Amino acid sequence: MSLPKAMTIAGSDSGGGAGIQADLKTFSALGVYGASTITAITAQNTRDVTAVEAVSNEVVAAQIAAVLDDISIDAIKIGMLGAPTLIQTVATALERFSGPVVLDPVMVAKSGAALLPDDATQALIEILLPRADVLTPNLPEAARLLGEAEAETEDAVRSQGERLCAMGPRAVVMKGGHGKGDTCVDWLITESSATNFEAPRISTRNTHGTGCTMSSAITAELAKGATVEEALRRAHAWLHEAIKASDQLEVGHGHGPVHHFHELWA
C-alpha cells in the first residue's frame, strides 16, 4: 500500500509553529508523507516577525517542478505567497497537477505582522481562487478578500463564504478561530450546501499556526482520499485536541504553537 503524499507551498517559520514547519508536522502526525516548496524565509518566534525575505520566483518554480517530477503527490496546500509575480509563478507551475489544491490565503501573522501586500490580494483572487478546490480563510482574511467588514454573526459568516465560493473555489472553509463566544464554528460552503462544525472554544494563548495547521490537516485528509466534508470533519476534531494539548509544550513567551503530536507524545 502506497503512503499518501502531500506538498506544502508556503513560507518558513523559524519558530516552528506555523508555515512550512506546521504543515510538515501536520502531514506527519496524520500519516502523510510531506514534501515542500519554500516561498519565503521569515525570522519569527512566538512574539513577532522581525524579517521576511522572499525566495526568487525561479527557485520556487524549480522546487515545485523537482517534487512533481519525482514524487506522486496526492494533494497540495498553498500558504504564504508574497507578491503577484509569485502567485502567477505558482499557478503556472501547478498547471501540470490535477489533484486537489487547498489554498490558505495567509495575510497576517498571529503577531499582527502583514504577510501579504495589498497588491497581491487581487492577483490571488483572479489567479488562484479559481484553481482552488478548497479555500480556507479565517474571518479577517475572508473580509479582506471581499473588501468588506469582518463578519460578526453566523449569518454574515455564511453569506461571506457563499460569495467567496462564487468567486471560483469549489468549496470554502470559513475558519472560526477569530470568532467570538464560547463555541468555535467552522463553516463548509459549497455551491449547493452549507455545513457547520462546532467545538467548545478553548481558553489558551497558544494558538500560533492554527490556520496553517487546519489547512494542512484538510490537505492531508484529501491526500488520503477523503471527501472535502470528511476532511474538514476529521481536521476540525484533530485540531481541537491539538489546541487542548498546546499548553503542555511551553514553547516561547508569546503565542505558542498547538501540539501537532498530541496523539503520539505528551
How many helices? The count is: 8
> CATH homologous superfamily - what is it?
Ribokinase
CATH topology: UDP-N-acetylmuramoyl-L-alanine:D-glutamate ligase
Largest pleated sheet: 6 strands, mixed
Query: How many structurally independent domains?
Result: 1
Structural class: alpha/beta
Question: What is the element string, with H for helices and E for strands?
Answer: EHEEHEHEHEHHEEEHH
Low-confidence segments, given as residue ranges, are none
Span from first to last CA?
Answer: 30 Å
Mean of residue pLDDT? 94
Sheet with most strands: strand arrangement: 3-2-1-4-5-6
Gyration radius, in Å: 17 Å
Give me the CATH architecture, please. 3-Layer(aba) Sandwich
Number of E-state strands: 9
CATH class: Alpha Beta
The residue fraction in helices comes out at 25-40%
Global morphology: globular
Percent range for β-strand residues: 15-25%
Describe, in plain words, how this protein is organized in 3D.
By secondary structure, this protein is an alpha/beta fold. It has one domain (5-248): 3-Layer(aba) Sandwich (UDP-N-acetylmuramoyl-L-alanine:D-glutamate ligase), CATH 3.40.1190.20. Helices cover 36% and strands 21% of the residues. The chain contains eight helices and nine strands. It has helices at residues 19-29, 57-70, 84-93, 118-128, 139-146, 154-165, 210-223, 228-244, and strands spanning 5-13, 33-44, 49-54, 75-78, 101-103, 134-135, 171-174, 183-190, 194-200. A six-stranded mixed β-sheet has the order 3-2-1-4-5-6. A three-stranded antiparallel β-sheet has the order 7-8-9. A hairpin with a 3-residue loop joins β8 and β9 (194-200). α1 crosses α7. The longest helix has 17 residues, at 228-244. The chain is globular. The two termini are 30 Å apart.
